[in-house]
UniProtKB/TrEMBL annotation:
Record localization: Membrane
Main location: membrane
Source taxonomy: Eukaryota, Metazoa, Chordata, Craniata, Vertebrata
Originating species: Xenoophorus captivus
Protein name listed in UniProt: Major facilitator superfamily (MFS) profile domain-containing protein
Its membrane topology: Multi-pass membrane protein
InterPro entries: MFS, MFS_dom, MFS_trans_sf, Proton-linked_MCT
Domain Major facilitator superfamily (MFS) profile positions: 14-382
Record's keyword terms, sorted: Membrane, Transmembrane, Transmembrane helix
Transmembrane residue ranges: 12-32, 52-75, 82-100, 106-128, 140-160, 166-190, 233-254, 266-286, 298-318, 324-347
Length: 382
């Protein structure tokens, strides 16, 4: 008798995984988004140029992407749970060592290399888990998980500003390192999918074959570099490089730009919070839209990306608080729309079986844009 195909759970414990991924996104992406609060403090402390200071965050972004293939390979060989816990330890260690304030190159190593690698080792497996646990509800599940970056960014923006004023930027880094230690707790909640569904697959050889694509079995636990032969993935990687070169710049330079216009105290931090709220709305809206199947992900993505590019071109014309706030809100919403579908689109290109490897390659090459974007933007900063 032909066995019934058992695919991803599409619910159940998957929602615990989504909740855990929600906090992983917040404790990694939201922290990175609020690095701009430390920008002026570090620049003033070491007395260096804007472009020199920006190498701290640029190195973090680059290592976040460069570490992706290693994170994907370790995920395939070990488990998402183990890799996330290692990532949490690296993030904590990076921030704790950065708080020692030994030198600017020391910050490149700690806030840059260690923190960036830790973010990669936490972020990549969390995204992998969500995509493997869901099929029908994958777009909305990913949108909810990724919205943790926005929700905690809203909280972290004024919190980081307050921590810097109360405990100095060194003390703030120490406390943030303690917060990121909770990534290990999130990792512990990531129950491997194979453990849940492996028992039910033993009853039928045919059932096992049908589910091989859905479950990351040990026979398929090999990083697939051959995916680079797919022209669709190469074009998508090219898109990622250009996107990363420009789309990380506003979160880094909006606070210094607002300060240069005479906007002081907590108002620049409020801009980041509003942008995070708009980002959240964009992710949830576009996740819902993708789930309704009105448009394919690969049709929706270029539309929102084009609109986002137009907003970025218009952003510099804002010369007062309210105009900057409007453009930042539009940027946040459209950025959220793009984020909601840009990772799940990889499944459409390489299938779920090749998703982990495809995501690793995608992030690796995207590091080129992330590495050159912020310093290039710093040279043009007023």
């Amino acid at each position: 008798m032909k066995s019934r195909r058992v695919g991803p759970p599409d619910g159940g414990y998957g929602w615990v995984v989504v909740a855990s991924a929600f906090f992983v996104m917040g404790l990694t992406g939201a922290v990175l988004k609020n690095f701009s609060h430390f920008f002026l403090e570090i620049q003033s402390h070491f007395g260096v140029m804007t472009s020199t200071t920006s190498w701290v965050s640029s190195t973090t972004i680059a290592m976040f992407h460069i570490g992706a293939p290693a994170a994907s390979a370790l995920t395939l060989q070990l488990s998402q749970r183990a890799v996330i816990i290692v990532g949490g330890l690296l993030c904590t260690l990076g921030m704790l060592l950065a708080s020692l304030d030994l030198s600017l190159p020391w910050l490149y190593l700690t806030m840059g290399v260690l923190e960036g690698t830790g973010i990669s080792f936490s972020w990549i497996p969390a995204i992998s888990m969500v995509n493997h646990y869901f099929s029908r509800w994958r777009p909305i599940a990913y949108a909810i998980a990724s919205s943790g970056e926005c929700v905690l960014a809203i909280v972290f923006s004024p919190l980081f500003k307050w921590l810097i004023e109360m405990y100095s930027w060194q003390g703030a880094l120490l406390i943030i390192g303690g917060l990121q230690f909770n990534l290990c707790v999130c990792g512990a909640l990531m129950r491997p999918l194979e453990a849940n569904w492996g028992a039910s697959q033993k009853t039928s050889k045919e059932g096992s074959e049908e589910n091989a694509a859905a479950l990351p079995s040990k026979k398929k636990a090999v990083f697939q570099c051959c995916l680079l032969k797919k022209p669709e993935l190469l074009l998508y990687i090219l898109f990622a490089i250009f996107a990363a070169a420009g789309f990380f710049i506003p979160t880094l330079y909006l606070v210094p730009f607002a300060n240069s216009l005479g906007i002081d105290k907590y108002w620049p931090a409020f801009i980041l919070s509003v942008m995070a709220v708009a980002d959240l709305a964009g992710r949830l809206f576009c996740g819902w839209l993708a789930n309704m199947r009105f448009l394919r992900n690969l049709q929706l993505l270029p539309t929102v990306t084009t609109l986002l590019g137009v907003v970025l071109l218009l952003l510099p014309i804002g010369h007062n608080y309210w105009s900057i706030l409007v453009f930042a809100s539009l940027y946040g919403f459209l950025f959220g729309c793009m984020v909601a579908v840009h990772v799940t689109s990889i499944v459409d290109i390489v299938s779920l079986e090749g998703f982990d490897s495809g995501l690793g390659l995608f992030m690796l090459f995207r590091s080129i844009g992330g590495f050159i974007g912020p310093p290039a933007g710093g040279k043009e900063f007023v």
